[in-house]
Amino acid sequence: MKSPLGNRLRSNGFVLALLLAVELAFVFPEPGAQGGAFHAELVNNFGIAFILFLQGLSISFEKMRQGAGNWRLHALIQAFTFGIFPLAGLFLHGVIPAIWVSEPPAIRDGFLYLCVLPSTISTSVVLTAIARGNTAAALFNAAFSNILGVFLTPVLVEFLMRKTGQSAPFLPLLVKIMLLTLLPFFVGMSLRRFVVHYIEKHKVWIARLSNSVIVFIVYGAFCDSVEERIWQRYSTSMTVLVFVWVAGLFTVMSGIIYCTCMLLRLSEEDAIAAYFCSVKKTLAMGVPLAILIFGKRADLSLILLPIMFYHPVQLFVNGVLANRWGQRPQPGIPLPPHEVVNPT
Predict the structure, then answer these.
(1) How big is the CA angle at 235 (ends 230 and 237), to the nearest 5 degrees?
(2) Is the residue at 339 inside a domain?
(3) Which of 85-99, 155-169, 224-238 is predicted least confidently?
(4) Beta carbons within 10 angstroms of residue 35's beta carbon
(5) What confidence tens digit (pLDDT) does each residue in 157-213 have?
(6) Distance set, CA 326 to CA 32, 168, 232, 272, 281 (Å)
(7) Local structure of 156: helix, strand or coil
(8) Is 89 helix (H, G, I), strand (E, B) or coil?
(9) Can you tell me the mean pLDDT for 118-145?
(10) Which domain holds residue 224?
(11) At CA 218, angle to CA 52 and CA 236, rounded to 5?
């Protein structure tokens, strides 16, 4: 019989593995740093392509087609993902240094980067299903968001950082991103029909394999920052402040998305799908794309810090919301996030 503690550890295994990777990076930074024994700079490129290949294998064309017809809902979700969120990131990029004078510039870049990422795939669909929302539409939008994100995320990073006085050679970067992400992604989607039964049977282990690669990439990024003594320049309070800003961003965007669904009078099922797909940001795509976009920056771990905090925040809060909305006794618009309490 499985214990409640064991179930909780398994359900949060990925977050715990990320925390362990960060701790190991501070204790044993040499093997994972550039030129170290693990050769992280070589493993990363292969790992990025492998993650996107597995993402492609996991997406069902048939289920995507079921949710492809509701263009009003799709437009709303993608507008939030690649429109409203990037504007919020640009706003934070200007506001944070005005309020928090001593913050490192990489933190601003990290918030900007967080806001231009696509949605998650698996958890958006799972939470929508738990909340009894429009699951087919959630799958279509989450997958479509990730496909768009391969192109739009680096384009938005380039455009917004040029606006903030930062930019880098873009065309070579975009070509590299296409080769290491979009190509393996579509190869995986095209091969799915030949191995669909195997994929469905072993999808838990496939997810674990993908997550393991992400954990290693995070370990390598933090190893570089430890070796470059990035963290010795800042106090623990910086990390706490980043978490506070992340929680504030999540809360504000959740409220805006909810109010928009109310104003547009979306059906209950569509409103649930719109919320979960719009407010979530993918760590699975975020880490590989950060490696490609920001390259060998020693402060890459600081850039990744906002998305690493955003990930557990969205999992916890949205998990509570999904369970509450799934237990609703009758049709009606879900409660706004600030009115939600833990179910008893």
Answers:
(1) 130
(2) no
(3) 155-169
(4) 9
(5) 888 876 544 545 667 767 777 787 778 888 988 898 888 888 888 878 888 888 888
(6) 43, 46, 46, 10, 22
(7) helix
(8) helix
(9) 87
(10) 15-321
(11) 145
Considering its fold, how many domains does the chain have in total?
Answer: 1
- Please give the pLDDT value at position 155: 86
Q: Using the structure block, give the residue that is written with the tokens 């290949």.
A: 53
Mean pLDDT of the residues in the chain = 82
Return the residue matching tokens 């263009």.
Answer: 71
342 falls within a domain: no
CA distances, 91 to each of 86, 97, 99, 310 (Å)? 9, 11, 12, 18
SS3 content of the chain, % helix, strand, coil (to 5): 75, 0, 25
- Token pair 């913050």 is found at 103
Find the CATH number of the domain harbouring 170.
1.20.1530.20
Asked if the structure places residue 24 within a domain, the reply is yes
Distance between CA atoms of residues 245 and 189, nearest Å = 37
State phi, psi for 139 to the nearest 5 degrees. Answer: -65, -45
| Within-domain flag for 336 | no
pLDDT at 62 over 90: no
* pLDDT at residue 115 greater than cutoff 70: yes
Kindly report whether the global pTM for this prediction surpasses the value 0.90.
no
